[in-house]
Amino acid sequence: MTDPFVLAGKSYRSRLIVGTGKYRDFAETKRAIDASGAEIVTVAVRRVNITDRTKENLLDVLDPAHYTILPNTAGCYTADEAIRTARLAREAGVGNLVKLEVIGDQKTLFPDVTATIAAAAVLVKEGFVVLPYITDDPIAAKKLEEIGCAAVMPLAAPIGSGLGIRNPFNIRIILEQSRVPVIVDAGVGTASDAAVAMELGCDAVLMNTAIAGAKDPILMAEAMRLGVDAGRKAFLAGRIPRKLYATASSPLEGMIE
Amino acid sequence: MNDYVLRVRVTINGEPQSLSEGLTLADLLRQLELDQRRIAVEVNREIVARELYTAHTLTDGDQIEIVQFVGGG
Fold it and tell me: In A, which residues are within 8 Å of B44 by CB distance?
């Protein structure tokens, strides 16, 4: 495998991680994930509906033998809730990975960074592979790496906002200092946003709404796959420096007179 | 209501439920037709490991949480 994305000792071809929320049904979820090429998919942990059990289980369409399942702690507002959710997720039998989210505010869904760090410390000690969702704060990223998180996942913009990378300079600082993978998580709106994240040198991009909320989610999933690939290749190729004035592309010699 | 069968009152996912006495967690999950491999269970905020479902008898006042994976980001 050339240029694999290595996360917690496992190599992946795809650098696009996708969520499974907001789709019409499991069939659409599956088609979108197939089109995205993602090998890692996020899921949420919720109560079973004990009065209506006719519903299919998500894992019936997303076989954990084929996908790396990344449970999240979405909706948790305290470190304790997030820890409890992570433990339940592990018990459900898909491995040790957890996308740690401790939300600090309902309107922005920005993370509570201190609570995230506190929860990460507990979960790392318990043997979890912790992937924390954080603001684009280099100090928080550093602390989470020092605790032993397997990656850091700064947001591009608020969850579901589709605003793209609001502060590429902070992302660059995080990239420069990090020795664990940097995954842009949340805020991507369209394929060019994903490409920008990858061109900056991010290791992967995680998204849900940008695909699931598109008019044609399957086509957008493919666009995101191509955007991530294009951005990664451009990063590896090394872009030209930005210059204020023109540089001619055609030779100046041999002009007709 | 059958007066001859003793009942235990529990809460499952926030809903009050009445179960027959002596029911184990494994019995309950079977009654609810849940695939044991795809869920996780807490009783009174303590996770019960899957291999202990058959040994775990439910008692009056138990708070049971049964969760699974759903679509999310």
Answer: none
